[in-house]
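for the recovery benchmark. tokens below, seq after
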């Protein structure tokens, strides 16, 4: 049994973000086999005490995960770990050497829900970029530098893994995809679903790809859907929709914002759409729809890293006319609808269910001896150790007075 620490900037918000569903389910699986803790770095006043956030902490404790906060350096001096998993490369960037100095035996693993520089490249090719080439190059260099300094990284897709290895072949990469529970859902049954109903689920906070997807769909695709099926209606469900998405609301479009449960929307919708034009990593919205038996029409970007069988498990279209035609076919053709409803659910169960991903996690964390530790040079370790202790002393005896 290994001792594993996850480091996150906040509690995993499983009801708001598909990436956090994955993290929560990773913690759930690992806590059944190992001693697991989560350290929350968030220091904003009131965050940890907020009743809504305490629900996340209580839920983690219920599945056997110890929850810590405050000084990470103090935590690392008090508790020994075999592996430290840091969520997001930009969070890991200033922490890796600190962890090496205080826990030289621990494997340092960076978990990333997608490869950021690859997402930038896909966006630039699709719609252009809002940053300069120099800024993108520097961000790519910094991201790859973190991956090189870690002992291993976890990607959600083999495609993301291959992108990293093409740039830095020395990086140790393993793939841990999204993890989906298999609810009791009306798979293969249209009864109880709203006629001509479309659904998009996505977190809009810090996620321009979802906002772009909805503005593009409502501008380019929805008019063609309505021409074929005038009673069609789209529900846009997700956390913190920006003004341009809220402005889409109208006779045929409902924008709900955050909802505590997505199942009532999934179980009453006829078709789920994923019209993403850029992004990287796995798209939780597709897996979530499939496990509820909702057929999916997606762009090819949406299916990155999944490889479902087109026509049996999903419909894929990149042009507005073809996308609208695929939606109309699922509205009208009950046999095609049932084929995708059942096929999509079985696809997720085979590749992204708890049993399938548990085997991957066991291969990684079951015996960590396969993964060598990159150690700091003795002089560097001693110097960094002094700096860490001095910083912690200041935090404990001086700086806290200004934060009280």
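predicted aa per position
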């Amino acid at each position: 049994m290994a001792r594993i620490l996850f480091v996150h900037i906040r509690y995993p918000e499983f009801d708001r973000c598909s990436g956090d569903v994955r993290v929560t389910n990773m913690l759930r699986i690992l806590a059944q086999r190992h001693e697991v803790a989560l350290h929350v770095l968030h220091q904003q006043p009131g965050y940890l005490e907020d009743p809504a956030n305490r629900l996340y902490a209580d839920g983690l404790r219920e599945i056997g995960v110890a929850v810590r906060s405050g000084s990470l350096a103090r935590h690392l001096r008090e508790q020994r770990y075999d592996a430290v998993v840091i969520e997001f490369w930009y969070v890991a960037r200033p922490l890796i050497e600190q962890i090496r100095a205080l826990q030289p035996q621990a494997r340092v693993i960076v978990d990333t829900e997608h490869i950021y520089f690859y997402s930038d490249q896909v966006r630039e090719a699709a719609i252009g970029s809002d940053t300069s080439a120099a800024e993108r190059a520097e961000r790519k260099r910094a991201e790859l530098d973190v991956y090189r300094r870690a002992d291993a990284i976890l990607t959600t897709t083999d495609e993301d893994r291959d992108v990293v290895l093409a740039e830095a072949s020395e990086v140790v990469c393993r793939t841990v995809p999204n993890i989906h529970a298999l609810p009791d859902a009306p798979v293969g049954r249209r009864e109880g679903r709203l006629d001509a109903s479309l659904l998009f689920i996505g977190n809009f906070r810090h996620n321009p790809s979802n906002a772009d997807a909805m503005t593009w769909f409502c501008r380019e695709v929805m008019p063609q859907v309505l021409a074929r099926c005038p009673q069609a209606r789209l529900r846009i469900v997700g956390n913190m929709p920006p003004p341009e998405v809220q402005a889409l609301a109208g006779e045929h479009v409902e924008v709900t914002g955050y909802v505590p449960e997505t199942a009532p929307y999934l179980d009453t919708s006829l078709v789920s759409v994923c019209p993403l034009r850029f992004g990287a990593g796995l798209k939780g919205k597709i897996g979530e729809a499939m496990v509820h038996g909702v057929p999916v029409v997606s762009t090819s970007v949406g299916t990155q890293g999944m490889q479902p069988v087109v026509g049996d498990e999903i419909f894929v279209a990149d042009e507005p006319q073809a996308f609208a035609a695929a939606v109309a076919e699922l509205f009208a053709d009950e046999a095609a609808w049932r084929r995708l409803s059942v096929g999509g659910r079985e696809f997720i169960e085979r590749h992204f269910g708890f049993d399938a991903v548990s085997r991957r996690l066991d291969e990684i964390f079951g015996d960590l001896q396969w993964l060598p530790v990159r150690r700091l040079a003795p002089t560097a370790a001693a110097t960094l150790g002094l700096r860490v202790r001095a910083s912690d002393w200041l935090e404990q005896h001086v700086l806290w007075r200004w934060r009280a």
